[in-house]
Design goal:
By secondary structure, the chain is of the alpha/beta class. The chain has 11 helices and 8 strands.
């Protein structure tokens, strides 16, 4: 196979991703007809398989470049975190919402798997006798021991799942196409995917990013602010001044957070602002002396 300079490969990926080109095949095409890509590769066309292998092999190292780039931006006075804005968006997964199944459906599927496994084992015993061609681990070679091991592992997983706190009473579901994804509520309805989180400065420099399955943004406020602080501490002496976020992050608990930053969170969405203003009630003025007498009477009655 053709060999390429790793520095060139890193530059190629970073430049492509920076301008929104994510497809390895599209990057390969750009290497042939885009001047900037041709300059980076010295007029060599890098095939998409090589690009995919390089990205997969060095995924962690490439991710680590995020903090390094942030540090360079800080050295260039491009990062001014006196104002940090946080928002989230729903990202579609490569999965179908119709593939979400209940526990009972999974258990039925598991029973069919066990039945099929026993049938296959009987056929393989006739073909291979005591020998196995795929060199399975010793503790899984015997069909009975294998089924016992699977049942024990399933029982252990069930015990762990029962100990986990249930946030709601909905029947747990898992997607068989992309088990990591979850059903996300969007303005266009529900779609199978993820909730992407970003924190950016007013200079549009990304200082934190995350991808979660929790449909709600409200629980991501503290983790995102914490990630921003960690990234800034690793790259610059600058501290966060103000964090702004939309109504999706608003809750009574979040308004009382002590995070050493000025926190501005919208209490209602812009679309509901007019209704909130028209239905807002003026605070009731209470006579302090009357309030004190009421408290004394309450305590005496108690």
């Amino acid at each position: 196979r053709a060999a390429y300079d790793p520095a060139m490969m890193v530059t190629l990926l970073l430049y492509a991703y920076a301008i929104g080109v994510r497809s390895a095949r599209e990057i390969e095409r750009r290497c042939a007809d885009d001047v900037a890509f041709r300059v980076i590769t010295a007029n060599r066309i890098v095939d998409h398989a090589t690009i995919c292998r390089f990205r997969t092999r060095h995924r962690d190292a490439l991710s680590g470049l995020f903090v390094s780039v942030l540090g360079l931006c800080a050295d260039a006075d491009m990062v001014r975190p006196e104002v940090v804005a946080i928002d989230g968006t729903k990202i579609a997964a490569n999965a179908s919402g119709a593939r979400n199944v209940t526990r009972e459906q999974l258990e039925e599927f598991a029973r069919r798997v066990f039945d099929e496994a026993e049938r296959i084992d009987a056929q393989e015993d006739e073909l291979y006798g005591d020998r196995r061609g795929d060199e399975m681990p010793e503790h899984l070679r015997d069909p009975t021991r294998r089924l016992d091991w699977i049942r024990r592992r399933l029982a252990e997983r069930e015990a762990v799942n029962e100990q986990r706190p249930q946030a709601h009473k909905r029947v747990p579901r898992v997607n068989t196409t992309d088990p990591d994804s979850a059903s996300q509520r969007t303005p266009q309805g529900y779609e199978q995917g993820y909730n992407g989180q970003l924190a950016v400065t007013k200079d549009q420099v990304i200082v934190a990013a995350d991808l979660v399955t929790d449909n709600r943004d409200v629980a991501q406020l503290v983790p995102m602010i914490t990630q921003v602080k960690d990234n800034l501490n690793a790259t610059t002496d600058e501290a966060i001044g103000t964090v702004v976020a939309d109504a999706g992050y608003f809750s009574d608990d979040n308004t009382s957070l002590d995070l050493d930053v000025e926190l501005l969170v919208a209490p209602v969405a812009t679309s509901n602002l007019n209704d909130a203003v028209t239905t807002r009630k003026e605070p009731i003025e209470v006579d302090p002396d009357a309030l004190r007498r009421w408290e004394i009477e309450r305590d005496l009655a108690a």
